[in-house]
Predict the 3D structure of the following.
Amino acid sequence: MKTKIFIILISFSTSLPIFSQAKVFPGADQKTPSRSEYFSWINNTNEGATESQTLINLNFFKWLQNEYGMTLDIYAFDAGAIDGANFYGSDKSARFKKQFPTGFGNVTRKAAELNTRLGIWGGPDGFGDTPEEEAARTEMMVSLCRDYNWALFKQDAVCGQLRPEKYDAFDKMMTECRKFSPDLIYLNHRLNLGKGIVHATTSLLGGAETYIDVHMTNQVTAPHHRAAAISRELPKDMNRLTEDHGVCLSSCLDYWEDDLILQAFNRNLILAPEIYGNPWLLADAEFPKLARIFNLHKKYRSIMVNGFVLPEKNYGPNAVSRGDAKTRLITLRNLTWYPVKYKIAIDQSIGLTNKKKTNVIMYHPYEQNLGEFDYGKSVEIEVLPFRSCLIKVNNNPEDKELLIDGAKYEVVRDVPGKPVIVKLLSFPGESSSVKVIEGVRKFSSASIDGKSVPELVKKQRVAVKFEGDPYKNSYNRKLGNLDSCKMPADAESIYEATCFAADNNALEARSVLRSGETKIPEVKAARDAFFNQSVFVERELWDKYLFDGNVKNAFSLNMRWGSVELSGTVFRLDIGASIHLDSLIIKSFDGNSIQPLKVDEGIDILVSSDLKTWKPVKSLSGIKMVCDLRNIESVRYVKMSPGMMRITEIEGYANGRSLDRKNWRASNLFRNLVRRSYPVDRVFYPQKAWSNSFVLNEIPKNSYLCIAVNGQYGNEGVFAGVKIDGKYYGCPDRSPSFTSNTWELSVTKTDKNYTYYFPLTDNMKDKNIEIFAFQMNKTKVTITAEAFISAYPIPFIEKTLVLQ
């Protein structure tokens, strides 16, 4: 026994010098291929994930794998699973056991079905003040690697810094963890780890997180919200041991794929493709693209560890070529309003040294076989405004893949054992001569839109006609400048139109409304798990709670992070059509909820049918406020100023019957117009105006106007709106986003370069469209405004090719 004790003591006494001096492999190096990751931040906030919600989310990724062959390497829990903001937790705590009743066993086993490993967010310390507490913390973290084969630790200063007296404990813990998970990735988010820094795999790129319009907001006018994201710099010296916080799929979703292309193929860091938030909020038609990006990255990730920056004068900002002597993947971007053309040299200047005939393929923003070229030649590539582009230059005979020659296309599904599905893409009125170039798989039958086309499996070409009239103009172009003009007499109506068209819902609620209903059970389950979690409902972030018949939930002025200034905000209600009502009933919980109003206090509710004429209706405030509208001919728009803090339900009655409310909408954060500056300068009223008018003789599908207002004019310093044949239309979207009731953090306030977006529909064709921009304060600044038309997705006609 004494001998055994002596051996243990010697081992312990020599361990610290070994831990602090031994060469540490931090889980990856510059040549380690990327690993794909999802992490759960803003799917849950600091309250943390639960076992039930995680299993539902993993089912979503399982569906992506089964349907599209997508593999997720790492699923990481973010804040709150064990540690949280400003505290360290334990897997023995009542809090943890409530969230994970069976511990991490069930979720680990479920992840393993996908060949996915887990990871966790936390802080660097948690070692307590006694040897027993230090041992417990060490054992808990080591057990995640020893017992569950976890792949990632993300540790953050949100929990606090590592105390200097615990540097040795951290060193010991990480060394022990990597005995069981040698490839353990350690993400260092703003931490001072002392000598333990050698265990960190990455540091955070620019200190930036990527929640769109919360942490990352456009600084220039652009046709979408992700211009700042696709403008991100490369890490210094192309350092792949960097973490860029991935691509947020939770807010402002349009053009997410351009963002992910650059994250995965351009920066190509250790974690790539890396996504977080709520990818189930994408539209059903977008999931094949998500999987395609993941699958292409996995196919080429081993050669993409080798990359270099291409000359900006030839290839634009931060262009990168990755690959080997036979295959190069090139990422380009365009950060302007106009298409840009680059010439890609097919030679050693892009890293291609195999001097053979070379095939050039575009993968994004659509797929296209651009043809075969001699070595030493070049090929011209057009990059669309504010978009990225992914090109493969390849003369490796072993790299065989399915190609469609003669047409643009999108591979929807290419999974062994299932029919291949490809979307053929073209503009209306165009014809293509299509040929299938088989890759590894061979096919015996083909159909287009359900019609058999046997020629395609016989290596023959087939003419494909895309219906519709050809576009006369580019779908993506400048329409003109807005010129300074006399203030229109109806400026207030134009302002109100945008307030009523937009909303103040949580950004995630906006995203799901943008994407529409889903037909995929796994997607619906993940959406429901997110929106039905108690903390989301209890934060009262969505106007739909006013119209759902449930008096236990509400729509409120959200107070998180000081995101709301109660002074000057107006409650607005749009019932969708001008109709006659007998009454409108506004319900709340109690006297506190109706603040800043008091019970039994007279208030004028303003109503209008057309945004031009407003009539006051005297009402008595209270928990159940009844607005008598019998003497009003018709009503569509309702304003209450000041608005109540919390409203649980709004009901309308006509002819003694309750009205259908499915098209009713509300907002509660947009400001009232104020003309007077006395006694405090609170002027918020149109001061200067700019306008333009035009007629569109064609409107491609998915089209929208961009009203780009350039200048530095202060927070909420400009507003924009639209009139069509004299009728008011508001802009429902803007970059930066309209202020929202906050799910996690508030929308960033910015003082410059707003872009207002207005969706176009076919019935607006050949009508007089007037667009307006207003400066809302008295500040003397230089403002210029421009109008563009764009479309997202690209307004292609689609035909479905199925190969079996």
Remarks:
- The two ends are 71 Å apart (CA to CA).
- DSSP finds 14 helices and 45 strands in the chain.
- Confidence is low (pLDDT under 50) at residues 1-21.
- Residues 2-21 form the longest helix (20 residues).
